[in-house]
Amino acid sequence: MNIMIAGGSGFLGKSLTRSLLADGHKVFVLTRGAAVPAGAQAVSWDAKTTRGWGHLVNEMDVMIHLAGKTLASWPWTAATKQAFHDSRVLPGLALAQAIREASHRPGLFIQQSGINHYGLRGDIADESTPPGDDFLARLTVKWEDATKAVEELGVRRIVIRTAVVLGKGEGMLGLMALPVRLFVGGPMGDGKFAVPWIHVNDWVGAVRHLMSNQDACGVYNLIAPTPTSNTEFNRALASVLHRPYWFPTPTFLLRILLGEMSVLVVEGRFSKPKRLIESGYRFQFEGAREALSDLFG
Angle at Cα 271 formed by Cα 129 and Cα 71, nearest 5°? Predict the structure, then answer.
């Protein structure tokens, strides 16, 4: 298949691209100059318009929108929050416009989103749970809505609400492990809030599973099936890294140090991958300890 990925030069995009290339697919990566995996075709774009690349959509079987500035960007100033919005929504609008203008449209469009769609508090959420009303939840709604128009154009659309993806030397795992490595590991705040995570192998596996399932459409939560609290995650991390688990970090201190960004480390709602499991996907890594052992072992 011919597959176009926006955001294909990032951690997740590269992981997915390598998997697709290994199986003989042809991958086109929309990029603003960043390096792409060997074997993929880099396509220049401005992440705002269809200029210079829109005609390629006529050749695509699948299009995937993974673009977006990482939330691990401190501090969350007004300009940073606007960048979170623009780096997600503007590329989505451009991708939808390219499909609208195409004479031959792809059969599938995959839209990345965040598991924080469901808000920071509440009972365990699944795909039917309505969105929250905090900044991150509202951001995911706008992110998803940017490409909703492709459904009206007859393109099957899948929305993947993704948890923190754990990868060796990639993503946020290094930052999450830093306090433990420095022998000050312990619970953040009261440690009871959720740490939503998924192993990178399962993230890639779930995306590939949904791509190959012709009945798959709508929203799927890409998150490990075992609910994990901050205490449980950090305790497993300390054990795998052979470090002590003893130094709790007060919530008020994290709020002072991180400002609004502190919601990433002191709040979080438990969620489950209900529809993904119902679709037949089987996780390689269901628990935090086995996932972390694989990545650090």
Answer: 100
60 lies in some domain = yes
pTM for the model stands at 0.95
Q: Which tokens go with 174?
A: 């290094």
Exposed/middle/buried for residue 185 (C-beta within 10 Å: 0-12, 13-18, 19+): buried
DSSP letter (8 states) at residue 222: E
Read off the amino acid at residue 184.
Answer: V
Q: Cα separation of 294 and 296, whole Å?
A: 6
Report if residue 193 sits inside a domain.
no
State what percent of residues in the chain have pLDDT above 70: 100
CATH code (residue 58)? 3.40.50.720
> Would you call 79 exposed, middle or buried from its count of C-beta atoms within 10 A (0-12, 13-18, 19+)?
exposed
Q: Looking at the 3D structure of the chain, how many domains does it have?
A: 1
- % of the chain beyond a pLDDT of 90: 82
Enumerate the β-bridge partners of residue 157: 109
